[in-house]
Structures are given as C-alpha cells and as structure tokens.
C-alpha cells in the first residue's frame, strides 16, 4: 500500500486527512512499507549485509525504528547511500545533496535514521523530527605514556619560592655582615676572642653552605648575630627538607601529559594529523566559514583526512593509537572507542580532550513538510521522555567509565635512570664550566695585576 505522496495527488491514501488531524493517535489502517535510509554509525546503529534477509540493522536507532513501526503499524525496507555519507550539498552547484539527505530529498527514501545533526541548511531540504539527543564534538587522541622529567628538580619550588629564598639569604648575609663588622667573629672550637670581620661575599658563602648542610668554622661573636644565624638555619632546615621530600615524591609519581585538550592545540601543532567524518554538518560548516577556529581547521587540509563512519573505528584503533593523529568526532563515538578498547585489551590507550565544541541536536529526517512528521514526533517525544534512547545507548558502552576517569598521574617503583636525571648533570656541567671560567679569569688577573 502506498504510504507517502503529495497533497494534490489524487492517488494519495485516504488516511492523509486523519494523519493531519490526529497525529498523536495515528496508525496506518493497513500495514504499509516505508523505505528507510540508514548507514552504520556505532554505537547508534550497526548495519550489516545478510544474504538471506538483505540489509539488517541493530542498535539504539534500530530499536527506535522498531518501536515506531509497532506504534504506527508499518513495515520498512532498509537502503544504504552509495557514498556512505550523511549528506552535504554537492560541490557542482546543482542544489542536490549527497548521502542519506539526498536520498530523502529526491524521494528515494521516505525517512532516514541517522541520527542527523540539525542545521539550517539541512532543514531547508528535509524535515527534522523531535530531538533524540544532544551531543558535542570532542578530540580523541592516544593516551601518552608517563615520562620522567629531566628538569623535575626545579618543580618542588615555584619561581617565586626560589627568588624569595635567594633574597632572604642575601638580606640575612647583609645583616650578618653589619653585625660582624661591629662586634667581630669567633672561630668554632677556639677561644671566644673576637676576630676581624669578613666580607659580604664570605657571609653569603656561609649561609649558602649551611643551607646545604655544610659545617661552618666561625660564627658571629655577638648574641644578636648568632640569633640572626639561627633564624637562617631554621629557614634552611625547613626549605631543604621540604625540597628533598617533594623531589622524592615527584620522581616517584609521574604525570601523563595531555597535549591536545583544545582545538587551538591541534591548529598550532602542525605535526598531528586530523581525521574527520566525511559529509557531516561540521564539514559543511568548515567549507563555508571564513573566520574563527573552524576556518583555521579548514585551512589544515594538507594534514586532514575524511572518512566514512565505519572507517572511524579503523582510524582510531590503527592511526590514533600508534601515531600523532587526532580524531574529531562526537562525544558518543569517542566514548564508544574507549569502551570497546577497554573491553578488548583491559587498557586505557585513548584520551578525550577537555573541550566540548560544535553542539548539535540529533534527529531523524523525513521528506520536506510531509505530515507524517507529526505522528513520528508524537511517538518520539514519548520515548525520549522515558529516556529509552539513552538507556539503549548506555547498553552499547558497558566499560566507558573505566577510562573516562583514568588517572593522570601514576606511581612508579624503579631505579632512577639517566633518562630522568640528565638535567641534573647538565646543571653540573654548566656549573663546572662557569667555575672553570672564573678560575681562568682569576689566574689571568693575578698575573697581570699582582697583589701588592
């Protein structure tokens, strides 16, 4: 029995008026067969070719279609787009569209499952149903391995603490220098007779040496000077113990780097390859936008690749896992990759960036301005109000939470290696080079201008 037609065609079925007047309760009087366009997009829908039953679908969108078929009394035949695309305008300027949207526009299909992101340009050629879900695009990259930081010896203290430590040492050295010039110094393990005072640099070396737990051979003779020295020893004790304990913790706990959290990170790093799903609302927008981050993305064509939905997972498990490649897809697709990967391997090899961008309302589509949209919307609103679709979708993501909150820091128990400590030896080499330079200058100056 014919299901769809137009309002002026005399062969239109007699239930057309009923469909317009009572969409909430409408059922086809007799079972009809609708042509439904569908393409694989796991976890929403899986499509396979069966030699006996033809094209067979499964997943949340298939469950939704079955529920609509029972509620409205229709059967359906599944067809797939030849190009495997959702649909964008053809570049030839003909006004036609490719993918499933083109099939519905040309009346090769009565409706299409998708789900499709709602955009203005699409709404001009097809009708969108009530929303099924709202999703965002995310960045999917490989999770990097924890790496030792050879410059980690700087991390226990911030730059402000380092500066404060040095300034405090210089201030106390100046105070000690003034005290000893007035009252003199006394040598340790000798008589308490005041001796001559020392220079400011010698006071700096005294405080620097005590901060490194070095023994001192002299101290201020006056009680006030010794009190100043005691204050410094307390400061040095707290600082050095805090530094050593924090450094030990930092060497034992390694941070997993997350370099691609935002789109601007991908735009600025010209070494990372970008993978997009072809013929989507985002790709259509990138082809027309002139400014902003999406225009910047569109300019990265030399390192971008566009694939069909079934190829997304192949790209994730091969390219993204093993190389500097980023997959720019919906959050649900990213979480499906994480879930399936953990189910198969028991590992969390992927990372989802923090930024959520390009939000879209996802719906089914039917022919433009066809009245069956009211009947479909009435059922969809009932289903979504009961959260049925999200429940079906959750069943496709059994282990998604295992990796969505994976630790960004890990504790390691292994000997320190040169890989993690070579920065210290660089510091040692630079220090030896500077001291050797100073020694050479001192020798040269002593020869040219010998002391009197």
Could you give the topology of this structure?
Blueprint: H1 16-21, E1 32-37, E2 46-50, E3 54-58, H2 60-72, E4 74-79, H3 99-105, E5 111-117, H4 120-123, E6 126-128, E7 133-142, H5 159-183, E8 185-187, H6 200-211, E9 218-220, H7 223-252, E10 253-255, H8 263-268, E11 273-277, H9 281-288, H10 293-298, E12 304-307, H11 309-322, E13 325-330, H12 331-345, E14 350-352, E15 357-367, H13 372-385, H14 388-395, H15 400-404, E16 409-411, H16 418-448
Parallel strand pairs: 1-4, 1-5, 11-12, 11-13
Antiparallel strand pairs: 2-3, 5-15, 6-15, 7-13, 7-14, 7-15, 8-9, 10-16
Helix pairs in contact: 2-13, 2-14, 5-6, 5-7
Pfam families: Lig_chan, Lig_chan-Glu_bd
GO molecular function, one term: ligand-gated monoatomic ion channel activity
Disulfide bonds: 348-403
Kindly describe this structure.
Its main location: membrane. Keywords: Cell membrane, Disulfide bond, Glycoprotein, Ion channel, Ion transport, Ligand-gated ion channel, Membrane, Receptor, Transmembrane, Transmembrane helix, Transport. Belongs to the glutamate-gated ion channel (TC 1.A.10.1) family. One of its GO terms (molecular function) is signaling receptor activity. It is found in: Cell membrane. This protein is of the alpha/beta class and 452 residues long. Among the domains are: 152-254, Helix Hairpins (Orthogonal Bundle), CATH 1.10.287; 421-452. Helices cover 45% and strands 18% of the residues. It contains 16 helices and 16 strands. Strands 1, 4, 5, 6, 7, 11, 12, 13, 14 and 15 form a ten-stranded mixed β-sheet that branches. Strands 2-3 form a two-stranded antiparallel sheet. The longest helix has 31 residues, at 418-448. It is elongated. Residues 6-11 have low confidence and may be disordered.
């Amino acid at each position: 029995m014919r299901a769809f037609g137009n309002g002026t065609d005399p062969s239109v079925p007699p239930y057309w008026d009923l469909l317009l007047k009572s969409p909430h309760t409408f059922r086809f009087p007799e079972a009809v067969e609708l042509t439904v366009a569908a393409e694989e997009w796991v976890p929403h829908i899986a499509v396979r070719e069966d030699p006996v039953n033809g094209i067979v679908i499964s997943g949340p969108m298939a469950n939704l279609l079955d529920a609509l078929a029972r509620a409205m009394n229709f059967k359906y035949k599944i067809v797939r787009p030849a190009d495997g695309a959702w649909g964008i305008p053809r570049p030839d300027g003909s006004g036609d569209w490719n993918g499933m949207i083109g099939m519905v526009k040309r009346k090769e299909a009565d409706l299409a499952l998708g789900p499709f992101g709602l955009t203005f340009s699409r709404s001009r050629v097809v009708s969108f149903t009530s929303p099924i879900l709202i999703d965002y695009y995310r960045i999917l990259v490989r999770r990097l391995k924890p790496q030792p930081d050879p410059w980690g010896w700087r991390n226990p203290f911030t730059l402000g603490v380092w500066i404060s430590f040095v300034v405090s040492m210089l201030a106390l050295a100046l105070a000690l220098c003034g005290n000893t010039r007035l009252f003199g110094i006394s040598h340790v393990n000798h008589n308490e007779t005041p001796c001559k005072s020392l220079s400011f640099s010698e006071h700096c070396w005294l405080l620097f040496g005590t901060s490194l737990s070095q023994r001192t051979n002299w101290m201020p003779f006056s009680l006030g000077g010794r009190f100043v020295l005691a204050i410094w020893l307390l400061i040095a004790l707290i600082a050095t113990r805090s530094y050593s304990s924090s450094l030990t913790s930092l060497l034992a706990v390694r941070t997993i780097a997350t370099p691609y959290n935002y789109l601007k990170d991908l735009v600025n790093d010209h070494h990372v390859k970008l993978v997009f799903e072809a013929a989507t609302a985002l790709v259509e927008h990138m082809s027309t936008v002139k400014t902003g981050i999406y225009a910047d993305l569109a300019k990265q064509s030399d390192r971008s690749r566009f694939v069909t939905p079934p190829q997304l997972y192949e790209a994730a498990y091969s390219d993204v896992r093993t190389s500097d490649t980023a997959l720019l897809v919906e959050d649900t697709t990213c979480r499906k990759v994480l879930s399936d990967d953990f189910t198969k391997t028991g590992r969390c090899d992927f990372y989802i960036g923090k930024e959520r961008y390009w939000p879209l309302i996802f719906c089914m589509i039917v022919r433009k301005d066809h009245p069956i949209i009211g009947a479909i919307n009435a059922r969809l609103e009932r289903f979504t109000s009961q959260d049925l679709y999200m429940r079906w979708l959750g069943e496709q993501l059994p282990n998604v939470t295992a990796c969505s909150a994976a630790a960004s820091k890990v504790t390691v128990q292994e000997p320190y290696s040169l890989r993690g400590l070579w920065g210290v030896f660089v510091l040692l080499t630079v220090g030896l080079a500077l001291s050797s330079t100073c020694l050479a200058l001192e020798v040269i100056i002593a020869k040219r201008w010998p002391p009197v």
